[in-house]
Each structure stands twice: as structure tokens, then as C-alpha cells.
Amino acid sequence: MKCTGVSHAYVIFGATGNLATHKLLPALYQLHRMGQLANDVEILGCGRTEFTQDTWRIEIRTLLVASGIKDDEVLTSFIQRLDYLAGSLTDAHFYQSLAQWVGDNGSENNVIFYLSISPDLYVDVTEGLAAENLLNESAGWRRMVIEKPFGHDLQSARELQHRLDKHLKEEQIYRIDHYVGKETVQNFLVLRFDNLILEPLWNRHYIDHIQITHAETVGVEGRAGYYDKSGGAVRDMIQSHLLQVLALLAMEPPVSMEAEALRDEKVKVLKSIRPLDTSQLSTLAIRGQYAAGVIKDESVMGYLQEKDVAPGSHTETFAALKLYVDNWRWRGVPFYLRTGKRLKARHSMIAVRFKEPPMDLFPRAAGKKRLPNWLLLGIQPDDAVRMEISAKVPGVEMNTRQIVMNATIGQPEERKSEAYEELLLDVIQGNRALFLRYDEVKAAWSVVDPILQAWEQDEQMPLQYPAGSWGPKAADRLFGDSGRDWRDSLLDDTSNPT
Ligand SMILES: NC(=O)c1ccc[n+]([C@@H]2O[C@H](COP(=O)([O-])OP(=O)(O)OC[C@H]3O[C@@H](n4cnc5c(N)ncnc54)[C@H](OP(=O)(O)O)[C@@H]3O)[C@@H](O)[C@H]2O)c1
Q: How does 381-418 read in b/e, with b if 16+ C-beta sit within 10 Å?
């Protein structure tokens, strides 16, 4: 097998955990299969669970086979890259053993440290690595990948950054947001900046509003304890993923696709978001919590009944916000962000509604009105672009109806890459464009901090919504009397004559 790429070692802290076993190691397998890992790349897994090199290799082989990987030859050669080091990340001896491993393994000059661990451990790991001189770049590069969340509010993000700054340069830190690695999210950039067709319309003169929805049917699964204490829909989804999507949609064309050019533009958008007026919060931000209900014919329990959720917890499993980007292009255009667990369907989508033409020239059937133009971008599960426009119904009468131009982005024979594959490769290649710079993270926390603080002081419970619904009905309040409504699906019925 022909392998290209940069020599390095990949060290994964938290290798026995959910993220590493379900996403990172499968993504590295795919990079190996595609010949993107240099021959001498070794991958060291670290965790507290005791494994030998042999038992670790068997464990990962079994997992990859169970995930559907069939090519035995490629799998065997991938497994040969794996090694394991057991120990606690709060124990100084562990870093001595790690330094020895790094010294003993051919690619000692370039090392990626992936922190697939609880954020409480980020500082311990950084200090442990620094104590063994493992972050020093005199002989080769040292990169650290940090999972979200980066802090749990603005203040804690600042404190974390302050601790990291002592040992790492900003260029060494890769703050990952896997949402930005999704094919469709990157496709916004191509749709916007590799075509001229959208750009003239992409502003307050033609766009009525934009909705960004991320809906899940799952609940908190095995993460209830963590989610209840440190999560919630705003911290878990909006501060990171949905604000990133908003920034990519709203930003000005960057001068190039270089990391700093792209990130400069995203930061400008985040900084232009109008601070939320907390005295009007009930019309700008809605929080909810799922109660028992039915999803796909299956009864599911409410959030408060989930194991490890504190009795009477106020943690929101649903949030919807109305934001304004106060700049020349977007002033006055609302951006509605909505996310929730245990909702009716699993889907992520961007829905852009255009304004009405200045005159209504065509007759409508009694009681019918013109339907608006929508541009819909499906992120998951449908990776699609859909445009809804008005056309004449065939026949002697002048009736109109909405027709749909629908395109799936990928071809059936094309394999869609997983977000982590591309991002892990970017780290190897030193491409930071899709990773978050500290000022982006800070700006995103500044947007949501006032909401989190106001909700923390609010003694009322989040609004309950039955599992299997689209969240609390009160989320409609964000639209006021504008006549707008949530766009729940890519596939709303548009076939009726209007
Ligand atoms: N899971 C996801 O899909 C996902 C998505 C986005 C972001 N994230 C983020 O990714 C990180 C990891 O999430 P996860 O779901 O994989 O967590 P997880 O399943 O709980 O795994 C945690 C890992 O950390 C290790 N660990 C914990 N304490 C340790 C210590 N003191 N010393 C050494 N190792 C220790 C555990 O090792 P042992 O079990 O062997 O002790 C395990 O490998 C978190 O920051 C999370 O927010 C996860």
C-alpha cells in the first residue's frame, strides 16, 4: 500500500472512551486505508484501563470489524500501528513513561496530542507534557487537539487559555469542532464563494430570515451525569456548533482560504452579534426540557427520570434563540437557532427564506397566498440543497404552485467522509482553517453568557415538551407576529397550487 504524508506520532489521551473508539480510531483507519498516513506513523492510545499492546490491538480490531470494516489486509496493517500506555493523567510518572515512548518511537520529532478527555484534565495534561519537555518544538512540531467545550463560560474559557498559554503557542492548539468538518458545512463555503448566483442575494435586501436547526431524537444516553452538570443545549450545541454555522453563513468573503483569513471573517460576525437584551429574554430565547413521550412508536422517559440527572434539574435539553448580526450586510435580518434532544426527527438543516417580490401579479385560488422562496441546505441525515420557487400549474387557468429544485450533493457511488477524517488529516498537515481560534471561542461565549446567567438566576423550570414533539410551543414566540414559522423538515409539502 502506497502511503504518503508527514512522519509523526499520534497520541490519544482517553483512547478507551466513546469518542476515541467510535470516531477517532475509525477515522485514523480510513486515513490509513487512503494512504494518508506515512509508513512510520504510530498511534499510541492512553487510558486508565489496563491493556497490553496485544490486548489493545485485539480490542480495536474487534471494534472496527463490528463497525463494518471488512478489508482484512488493510485492517491488519493499520492495527500494527497501534500501541497502548496505561496510566493516570494526574500522575507525573505517566508522563515520564510517555516521554520514553515518544523517544523510542521513530517519529519523535512531530507529535500530535489528542485530548479526548474530560475538560477538567486539559490543564493537568498540558502541565504534565510540559514538565517532560514534550511540548517543545525545537526538534519537530508538537500539536495539541482540544475537544469542545473550551471552558463552560467566558470566564472559565479565559482561565483555561491563561493556563495553556504558559506552555503552548496559539499555533500549536487545534480547538476542534467536528460540526465544521461535516461535508455540507464546508459545502456552504463552496456554494457561497465558488458561485456567483447566491452572493448578490445574500444580504438584508433579499433575505427575510435564516433558521439553523439541529434536532436529535436521542436523549442524553450514557452522558446524563456530564450533560446535567456541565452541558445543556446552549453550551453543548449553540455556543459551539450552531454559532460556527451562523458565522460561516454570515461572514464576508475571505481574501483566501488560509486559516487566518477565514477565521478573521468568522470572528467579525461573532463580534457583530447584537448583545441579547435580557429584559426581553422571553421573546429572544426559549429553553425547554423533554418530558416522557413517544418517539417512533417507542415510549421514552422524561429528562428528569434519566439516571444521574439531579432531581428538579433546570438543565435545558432544548433551546431556541433569535439573534441579529448588526453589520452592513445583515442588519435587521433575524437568525433563528434551534436545537433539542428527543425531538420528532433527527435532522440538521439551514433554511433561508427570501423576501416577497414587491408586487403580487398573479391571481391565487381563494384563500391561497403566495408561498415564499426557500433555500434549504440539509446537513444531516440528508446532504442536500433544495430550492423552492413559484411556477405556473399547467392548464388554461393561471394558477401557481411551489416547485422544488432538489440536488443531493454526493453521487451514490461516492463515499462521504466522516467529519473527523478530514479534521485529523488537517492536524497532520498543519491546516488550522477549520479549527477555532481563541478569539472565536471567546466571542461565542460572549454571545451566550448573558442567556446562561439569566437562566441560572431564573427559578422557573424550563418549559416541558413531550419527547417526540418539536419542542415547547412557546418557541413560536420568537417569531412574534411576523407570520414566520419554523421550518421543520426539508420535505414540507409544497405540491398544492397556491
Ligand atoms: N463522545 C462524543 O461523541 C464527543 C463528541 C464531541 C466532543 N466530545 C468530547 O470529547 C471528550 C471525551 O469524550 P468521551 O465521550 O470519549 O468521554 P468518555 O467516554 O467518558 O471517555 C473518557 C476517557 O478519558 C479517560 N480518562 C478519564 N479520566 C482519566 C484519568 N484521570 N487518567 C487517564 N485517563 C482518564 C478514560 O479512560 P479509562 O476509561 O480507561 O479510565 C476514557 O478513555 C470530552 O471532552 C467530550 O466533551 C465527545
A: ebbbbbebebeeeeeeeebbbbebeeeebeeeeeeebb
Q: What percent of the chain has pLDDT over 90?
A: 79
Among all residues, which ones are annotated catalytic? 241
Ligand 1 centroid–CA 231 distance in Å is: 15
Residue 434 makes CB contacts below 8 A (sequence gap 6+) with: 177, 180, 181, 186, 422, 423, 426
Q: Is 50 helix (H, G, I), strand (E, B) or coil?
A: coil
- Contacts of residue 427, defined as CB under 8 A and 6 or more positions apart, other chains included, come to 112, 143, 145, 174, 435
What pLDDT score was predicted for residue 417?
Answer: 79
Can you tell me the mean pLDDT for 218-226?
87
**Mean pLDDT across the chain:** 93
Name all residues whose Cβ lies below 6 A of ligand 1.
14-20, 47-49, 88-90, 116-119, 147-148
Q: What integer pLDDT is reported at residue 71 of this predicted model?
A: 86
Please state the pTM of the whole predicted model.
0.93
Neighbours of 339 (CB within 10 A): 25
pLDDT in tens, 45-61: 999 999 999 999 999 99
Please write the tens of the pLDDT for every residue from 291-336: 999 998 999 999 999 999 999 999 999 999 999 999 999 999 999 9
How many angstroms is it from 117 CA to the middle of ligand 1?
4
Q: How many residues does the chain have?
A: 498
Residues 6+ positions from 158 with CB-CB distance below 8 Å: 151, 442
Three cell numbers at 286? 426559549
First to last CA, the chain: 59
Q: Are 350 and 211 in contact (CB under 8 A)?
A: yes
**CA–CA separation, 62 and 78 (whole Å):** 13
